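Quick one: structure tokens for this chain, please?
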Amino acid sequence: MGKKKLDKKKQTKNKNKENNNNNNENTNNKVDFFLDDADADLVYDSSELESKNNSEQSSKNSDSLSEHGSDLDFNDEDYKSEEEEKKEKEFKMTKNQLKKLISKTRNGNEISITKIIILFSKITNPNSALILDENENILSKKNIISNIIKFCIEELPNIFLLKINKNNKNIEQLIKRYLSILIRYLKTCEETMKEFIINHLNILQNLIFLFKNFIEIFLKKSIEIWAITKIPELRIKIINFIQNLISSKPNFFELTIKIFYINYLQIAKSMNINSFQHIKQLQNDFINILNFDLQKSYITIFTFIRKLCIQLRNTIIDKTLSSIKNIYNWQFVNSLILWGRVIMHYVNDEDIHMLIYPLIQTIVGVIRLNSNENFYLLRIRLVILLNAISRISGIFIPVAMYILPILKSNYFIEKCKNNIINNNKNKDNNNKNNKNDNNNTKINFKNINNRVNIAIMIKIKKEEYKFKQIRKDLLIECCDCLVEFLSINSYRICIEELCNEIIKEIRIALKKIIDKEYREIIKNRLEKIENFIKFNRERLEKNKSMIVLTKIETIKNYENNIKLNNIKNNNKNNNNINDFYKEWENIRHRRQADFEAIKSQKENKFIEIDIDENN
């Protein structure tokens, strides 16, 4: 009885093995083009298929494949079994066979297209080994590899399109496999080949747009390259690809904006001399993309500004050092700058114009979050943004209250105790004297240019406040922000009251300042404000008959007329001393000049500073 049971179990096992073999034959005849490295094992071998004649379906498939194999003129040695491939892990092919394969592919032969895709996968896969002319490694011949890759990127997409137009359903799987290989290659290839692929996106996009999954993958990868690359031509190619995608597939617009914003934030984490212009260019591209659909753009802008508001609210509720760092960083500041530029660019749109108010409230909340002296530059940078929004939108934003406390700080009242030495001769002499001086100490600061630049700095350490040049630059920025604020609002009928209040606060701060250089900077700004008050009084007397304070319409007409006159004088380059409206533009040019001056200096420069405690 026991033997019979064992025999029955053996019979059932043998039957299961036969069924599994038959199933494997059927599955091996179908090529799965969705696996990453499956194409390395896909070899159509007529002898291998003939040996598996247990089912009628496998024999039919083997006959059809053998016929196609004779057209390609491949020898039996070129078709290896799976075991031999695992041992050798190599794909042998001669130059003549490669030429025939390419010519057959150009004629639209499906088996040759399949073979060229397998070859393309092996070339782009660093784990596979290819041999040409038996003993020579194809990886040593870069020209042959580059020519095959160029053929697969330049010509193969057009061949696919011709096959699709003939309603060939089997070609879709080949296209999917081809695109998956291309994505894998795009992730691992060199920068030159990435440029080559992106330059041919106009050809590849016809295939990419056929499949939703591949659209998302190529969209993410192309935008990732857009954020990293600093080559303008590449960025333009990617933008054109995305524009074509949005125009043909409008449903991907919101996803595109989100991917743009996420990649922008990754680059906007750090700000330095090299990345400043790059981040600014990314902002310009992002603004242009939003123009395709302003209604959907409004929804996405609103959601992202709301996230900034929620993050700020959580920080205000739980105000700790770690939570404040989540707000006081370049990533958060650059996101505010981006949405500020977006709203200023599309200020005429009714929906987007309404987003100005929550953005202003968020910026003001960031300014008021922490009054630490280390973040005076951050406060000034956000005040500059608020001034720009006020100038374009016409909304009055009282930013003077955030700048005047900086002028009253002790850094401008007390003397600067250190002398910065720039000449090497002075350094050598002072170093000799410092050896005998126990009261003097040396501090080595790395990457300090002893200058303040609002474009790339939001924080000043307490040690850096010892530099007189840093205090001077900070004072100039504060005074310029006040002058910019008054010049933007110079058309308002209440401008004299604003000027008088600011002059009063500046004079209180000026009484405590001892340094002559600081006093000259403040007095220079005071003279401009006082001259403008005289000019404004004369202008009011001339238009006195037009203004009726009890009627709002007359006041609005007066302010609109001044606005128009300011714009005309600005376009004509009228150099009127009392024309206070131009001051914001002069300040902008000064900031740009300071940035270029710092940019010309060498980076990673060690500056040695001697600090004399007695002086």
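The CA atoms of residues 328 and 381 lie 12 Å apart.
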